[in-house]
Amino acid sequence: MEKRWVENNHSDKTAIDRLAGELNVNAVVASLLIKRGIHTFDQARDFFRPSILHLHDPFLMKDMELAINRINKAITHNERILIYGDYDVDGTTSVALTYTFFKTQYDHLDFYIPDRYKEGYGISTAGIDFAKEHGFSLIIALDCGIKANDKVAYANSLGIDFIICDHHLPGDTVPDAIAVLDPKQKDCEYPYDELSGCGIGFKLVQAYCQFHQIDMDTILPLLDLVAVSIASDIVPLTGENRTLAYFGLQQLNSNPRPGFKALMNIAATKTDLSINEIVFAIGPRINAAGRIDDAKHAVNLLIAKDEQTAFDFCEIVDSKNTERREFDQSITLSALQLIEENFDLHQKKSTVLFDASWHKGVIGIVASRLIEKHYKPTIILTESNGLAAGSARSVNGFDIYEAISACSDLLIQYGGHKYAAGLTMQIDQIPAFQEKFEEIVAASIHDDSLQAEIAIECEMNLAEFSTKTYAVLKQFAPFGPGNMKPIFISSNVQLASPAQLVGKQNNNHLKFSVVQQGSYAFDCIAFGLGNLKDKLVPGIPFDICYTIEENTWREKTSIQLNIKDIRIQS
Asked: Is 342-450 in the same CATH topology as 4-8+454-568?
């Protein structure tokens, strides 16, 4: 798939030169900082040296005092408290964090994760009935509940109170809970509104500690859970999230809880775990428990106090991940074949597919896979409990949640974000939905959004690159949305060594080295670009866009350019 190279060239040269001088860095580094909203020495210091002191006062969040007062009352009167969370990574880490902490303060509590297939997303009637049957009078809901008006009303009728801790967009009205903690509420003045669900749970715990004068150091080990939630839920790595992720990664890499230690061992991750390793190695395994079987296995893994217990639950979770991969591969192939055989789909600006046999737990993954091949807003539907249940994924610049909202008259339920959403409808409504959704997408999507793009931060002259520059670039981590690993462009490079096909399975990757005028040779790896091998000819200049990374081979570490795309000059 051909990609657009989009260069961000909006930085002020005067501002770049001034900041470069203040920080004693080169113009490339100064430009990257300015593009992240960093214009002064003090801002740069805070960016490069995150501090726990940068965390906001949790009581700035609307209803936080009400939430803490209700928890205090429950503990004082020996009420049973149920920690309730969604079945994905954000939900299970939220539950693990909140349960782990409050279990150190109070014994009369338990946790509940709804069954993806029997109960669906969010707060369920079955979950509330469970609470009533087992004598719980307070439910703390995490990573869900902001739109559960009817469910909270039902709980109220049974004498069960709710504290909602969510980070999704509220509807026109919020549930009639004792407290609703969600910084996305219009009347919430909390300074940062992009926390993960687990991040909201951490703020609740932080507030409790602040109220009871419990040392903050006692809850810092919980930040490994927050870091995993931030990475897996793909929330912006800016502001408070960056601080939480920074210290969470430190915890993961220095003293991980037994559950994470077991996951890191079974996934054979490198010792210096990054956001990227969490996204591709840790998160999917945690997710697989809820996708394939029961997310309670994931929570039990994350709250395990000893290595043996963690190992036992890790084996269960990993086996479910193996099943998940098999479903993922087979359904992706099936969906791609449907597209290949249907000419009309090639002409549309959206993809909406339904097959009753597809496994509900992986349809979101499949939607993402299809976008890699056919770059357009995609919804994958399957049958669940007599209804069509779907997962939606979007492309750059298109709000798929808004497009789905415009089809609400055809839907039973929907929710999500700009780039990912879930929905249910009657099966007989699928054709009408496909037609209406396509009309909305076709009328509103910009042509540029139908072509994958590579966001390039700035041009790099390879001759000016130094080890000092790379040392500073490393300090931009942790990387993620809002603070992506910088992609550079270098023009008129030439081969310093011939391009070679590599790759264990399909030999679809390229390995070569390049030079630019005045530079030394840089080793390069280009994943998935094997088709360009014959076009890379010695003496013929070409342009590259790339990230810079360290590559360790046989205990030797060197700088390597990770090539994202190549343009051969005509």
From this structure: no
- Give the whole-angstrom CA distance, residue 17 versus residue 162: 54
> pLDDT of 517-569, one tens digit each?
999 999 999 999 999 999 999 999 999 999 999 888 777 888 999 999 999 87
Is residue 210 exposed (0-12), middle (13-18) or buried (19+ Cβ within 10 Å)? Answer: middle
Which tokens is 126 given? 């079955």
**Cβ-contact 422, 392 below 8 angstroms:** yes
Are the CB atoms for 343 and 356 separated by under 8 Å? no
- The DSSP element (H or E) to which 164 belongs, if any, is strand 161-165
Place of tokens 């597209």: 339
- List for the chain the helix, strand, coil content (%; round to 5): 45, 20, 35
In this prediction, residue 10 has a pLDDT band, given cuts at 50, 70 and 90, of low
What's this model's pTM, rounded to 2 decimal places? 0.92
**Which residues, other chains included, contact 483 with Cβ-Cβ below 8 Å and sequence gap of 6+?**
36, 236, 237, 238, 242, 476
Domain 342-450 classification at class level: alpha beta
Average the pLDDT over 92-105 and give the result. Answer: 98
- Give the DSSP letter string of 83-95: EEE-SSHHHHHHH
Q: Please, where are the H alpha helices in 186-236?
A: 197-211, 223-232
CATH class of 58-237: alpha beta
Contact indicator for 350, 378 with CB cutoff of 8 Å:
yes
For the record, the structure tokens of 261 come out as 């230690």
3-class DSSP assignment, residue 138: strand
CA gap 282, 432 in Å, rounded: 39
* pLDDT tens for each residue of 381-398: 999 989 999 999 999 999
- Residue identified by tokens 């080295």 is 513
**Count of positions (residues) in the chain:** 570
Q: Domain coordinates of the chain in residue numbers?
A: 4-8+454-568, 58-237, 342-450
CATH 2.120.10.30 for domain 4-8+454-568: no
384 pairs with which residues across the strands? 387
